[in-house]
Specification:
By secondary structure, the protein is of the alpha+beta class. The protein has an eight-stranded antiparallel beta barrel with strand order 1-2-3-4-5-6-7-8.
Amino acid sequence: MALACMAIILGLAHLLTAKPLDCEPLVPETIDNATMTKLLGKWFYIAGSSQHPRTLQEMELIKNAYFFLNPGSHQDKFLVTEVMRLKDDCVVNNSSYISVIRDNSTMILHGPNESSIAQLIKSSSEDTMTLYHIDGTHRGLSVSARAQNLSTEQLEEFKTQVACLGLKEEETFYTSAKDLCPMEEERDDKKHSIEVVEPTLG
């Protein structure tokens, strides 16, 4: 469960009957050294949409989440730290990393138990990270941002992309900016508990 956030940040049913008229194809973001640098730092996971049954179950559990992308051992690798509130529990995962394939704008999340693949998509804002997920025949879309909330324009862009992919409203989950878990590995039994997933990388 500790990998739920990034597995979602890094996973179609029938088309919607009322599809927006201004649908445009998702365009992969060019990943170069400048892009890699821009992606570094703290991101808040805002929303995700998917038709994968397991992913839907995981998204429903996530009240809020944020993560850090840090430089890895080579230029096409990020080390990942995730902090998530899953209902009343806080989970800190710092055992994952992302490998980047620049040719097709693909980001692969490597965790202790599973891997997830997503494509980085062009966004109208440098302060958002949009990822297109494919898991077998299932599609998904997620958005993260530098701030805890999206602007009206950013939110409308995400909603339009979700609708154009044929994803349904009941397949889309939004997080809350309230009661974020602390980054520090502290424990407050009155409010929540924190589970720390230790690194497994060498």
